[in-house]
Amino acid sequence: GATTGADELLSGVSARIPERAAVPKRIEILPEMALTATGKVFKPELRRRAAELALRDAVPEGARIVAALTPQGVAVEVRLAEEDAALQERLSRFRLPVRLVVDPA
Questions:
Q1: pLDDT single digits (tens) 48-65
Q2: Which of 32, 35, 53, 101 has the fewest C-beta atoms under 10 angstroms from its C-beta?
Q3: How far does Cα 15 stand from its chain's mean position?
Q4: Beta 64-70 vs 98-102: how paired, if at all?
């Protein structure tokens, strides 16, 4: 019956992991784990979610992030209301394909 939050979990594991590089930077609590039809963890969906989270920190507020699974992996589209040249430079550093779309409407 106990409950905890992501911040509490993060501080708890940080104190127990001796190697600094191995300490998680973020913990996300999911309502349910993405599973295959046979009940195994569906890793492509976790990668898709991780891509959205990583990009959320890189794009301005109000931008819409859509990550989709493709046969090649994860592809991401970022929709903005106006052009942002600095954002294009930041997005080019990601190892996954990110398409920037300017959509004023």
A1: 998 888 888 888 888 889
A2: 32
A3: 24
A4: unpaired
